[in-house]
Amino acid sequence: MVSSAIDLLKKEIPLEQESVVLAEDAVNGLVLVDIIHGFCTVGAGNLAPREPNRQISEMVEESARIARIFCEKKWPVMAFIDSHQPNKPEKPYPPHCIVGSHESNLVPALQWVEKEANVTIRRKDCFDGYMGSFLPDGSNLFVDWIKNNHIKSLLVVGICTDICVLDFVCSTMSAKNLGFLHPLNDVVLYSRSCATFDNPLHVAKNTNSALPHPQEFMHHVGLYMAKERGAIIANKISLGTNI
Ligand SMILES: [Zn+2]
């Protein structure tokens, strides 16, 4: 899609973003969505970037920076990791992030989080980390994580803005509105720490069964749809005691 067309479409659904201050005297939670080789490392698999991608590399760098801050504060962090059973396809996508594969591991900039006491790792076999947090006994690891840690504000980062990140935000907003996530107040999507993949129309046309997916526009749409559910879209995050 040419940039002038993207600009025209973006003007039809303008996205106002906020500068968000995370209260240092309350518990803030951080959710990392699928920041793994299979979606972020060049050439790592069927859904990995084919060449270096600025939106994705900036998302990784900024997410690692935010994760460091949360770990220094000992605030709770949950990392969702796409991990599929080899016999369970996730249509319309080709096989990706199979359990035990290199694709299904955190990127090097975030591998250190696995050793941190405040970090919960959740491997999921579906798009949506909320749905993927249900345990066989019917309880939900994410819901219990919010409640047990008394999380008031939730910061969400990761990939893909318009797929796994959005699905998780949609489920979380519905659960919050139903009263399942007390005391959670705010769900904040940090746009600079979100990214999606690039599969422009002229490439998709030559690839069997791949949907066209212009990166910049779909990233914008993903953020916009999260805002439609009531999430706060932030382009700046800082720490303070005034909220
Ligand atoms: Zn997947």
UniProtKB/TrEMBL annotation:
InterPro entries according to UniProt: Isochorismatase-like_dom (IPR000868), Isochorismatase-like_sf (IPR036380), NIC1 (IPR044717)
An example GO BP is:
pyridine nucleotide salvage
Domain of life, source organism: Eukaryota
| Gene Ontology molecular function | nicotinamidase activity
- Which Pfam families does the record cross-reference, listed alphabetically? Isochorismatase
All copies of domain Isochorismatase-like, residue ranges: 30-205
Give the family, as the similarity comment puts it: Belongs to the isochorismatase family.
- Record's protein name: Isochorismatase-like domain-containing protein
